[in-house]
Amino acid sequence: MSDLFTVQGALPPEGPLADRMRPKTLDDIIGQDHILGPGRLLRRAIQADRLSSVIFYGPPGTGKTSLARVIANTTRSTFESLNAVLTGIKDIREAIDRSDERRRLYGKRTILFVDEVHRWNKAQQDALLPWVENGTVILIGATTENPFFEVNRALVSRSRIFQLKSLTPEALRRAAERTLGDTERGYGKWQVSFEEGALEHLVEVAGGEARSLLNALELAVETGPPAWPPPAGTEIRVSLEAAEESIQRRAVLYDRDGDYHFDTISAFIKSVRGSDPDAALYWLAKMVRAGEDPSFIFRRMIILASEDVGLADPSALRVVISCAQAFDRIGFPEGNFPLAHACLYLATAPKSNTTMAFFDALGAVEKEDAEVPNHLRDPSRDHESFGHGDGYIYPHAYRDHWAAQQYLPTPLRGKTFYLPSTVGYEGRIREEVLRKREIQAAVIMGDAHRDAAAHGVAAGQPSTTVGGSADGEILSWSASSKGREGWFKRLESGRSTLLLADRDAILGKCSIKRHDRILIPAANDGLLLWESLRRTPEGLAAALVDTETAKEALLRYAATLDEPEQPAIAVYPSGKLPSPEEAGALFSTPTFEHILVREPWRRGGGSGLFHAFAGTARLLLAPGGDIVVLQSPPRLGERISRILREDCEASTAMTAKLAVAEEAFFTAPVNPATERWTWDGETLETCFNDAGFKIQRTIVEQQEARLLTERDLSSWFDKEKSNWGGFIAAAMGDADFFKVRDTLRERLKQGPVLWKWKSLLLLGV
Length: 765
Prior knowledge:
The chain is α/β, with parallel strands linked by helices.
């Protein structure tokens, strides 16, 4: 069939310049490195000819059709093209029949490119859906509209969305320079030059569209000579006046029913929320000039008055509603004044989003559908039988018409949803709200303590009050306790909480974009890998593990993902990084935007290892990239002396002696034989500074309940095999050394120990 993709190679010389200069290869495509740069998901899929159904979405002139053309030139699959403006159900069925025949008879795939896919109605899109789903065709759709609004939801769910961005001025200039230097398709045969400011004008007014730039360039160059084409080598001078005539003022880019409608109102709301009255007026003017419905604009401002201004200025809602009512009375053109009035009031008002606390409360309801406390229940029906309402304190009977009492359900005692901001009206009420809350919390927690005392605890057994339990539940533990299983469940829960906190702390240190490339060393547990994969759907999440077993385990977990979407996993020694050349071989890219690592030196570290790691990390990071490391230095770890001092009935003298010995062990002068146990945060930070990083260091306080075992004691207190044990025994003497062990053994019989330590969170840029 004859279509846009039938002719492979250069277009005829007489074709429009924008068509002649279409890219032929991936490297020819300009300005879309966020999805097509080295190592990016889309590039890998195209190069491997493993493309799944995709939709390219972006403004006009950003290269959607050109990218489809490049795929047509590189794929081994049959490539078919339809234009949604010109085709219907009949054309779809014919294309599907041909594709089905190829698959059945020859086992060959078909890629179907649909330009302007949003132009098809629901029935037309539905006709394509089953064939995309069963793999008869691989869809490539192109659209200028947001596919989540304009394309069949079922079709979107079966496709990966890639957003192409408007070209930057630098990218447009490269496109112009490539055209001026191309002797086959562009103007390289002639000596084209520009008056100062002429080319810059074309680039600026093109507004991020390569097609607009090339059309203007064609008009400016080809209307200069008396006749076109002139002899090769002819000098062609483009004046600023000619450039201005070649590209006229842009029309306002706005579609009331399309994506720009949503983008513009989004820009307006964000400008008002950001207290920028100039930007807010600009976006308001753009919407009014494009014919946006004023009632829609007022509706969004009314929402914003509560959502973003809220109680910082309770009058904002009243002002905006008054302006909306005024507009309804007078209409345009005078209605522009109340529109601007409301806009400026909101943009200059103090901001608070504390009304969002409602959604926190809603989440709590979904998790905990708790009963109404007895003293808050309606006494008019069941007071006599059940005592409903007993204990309620009537606030008006007290000074200031307030008295502290519990209003939340018992499982949510102490829970807070609303925190007043410090601006506007909320700033004035903040101190009073917090003061009452503090008093109320003191009363409620005092009640909880009394509930606990009333339950009683077995003598000699530690106890903990579980906050939020319905009856002040007390948990006690002993070797034979029936509650032992409950303790183990809570230990497991604590470990999960700790891991998630580590993950969030690391990821919270850097700003990850959808197309970023992330390298995760020491990724055996997958903790950082899966969240990184979710955050970079158009980029790369690459993991280093230290065994084939760990790699296989992670790959099994990822088996449900399509091949191009799976993480890249390679085996590499723990605590080390590959060179850029090795990374290129392992992951198809030598550089990354982020390196994220948790506890890479669990088996001990040292300055030599740190210097090598930091130096290689510097080489692996792309310009502007960063590295985040969470590591627990031995010097900041838990001390047995602290456990004995705070948690055991141990001799004060013995505990003090142990504390001195432990301090000496962890602060001993650097020795190659013991450095892996004695390095601290300064050692690590110095190594990264030497590699050229600017380091931001944070200390993270951590703790968890640990159920220590006899095996732990045997390992620690082995004078021959344990570095710590040998050092401490020599410092204390055998008698005190083994007395420490025996004291700790008695403590372990009572249950888990609260293990405390500190970690370093380093951000390097």
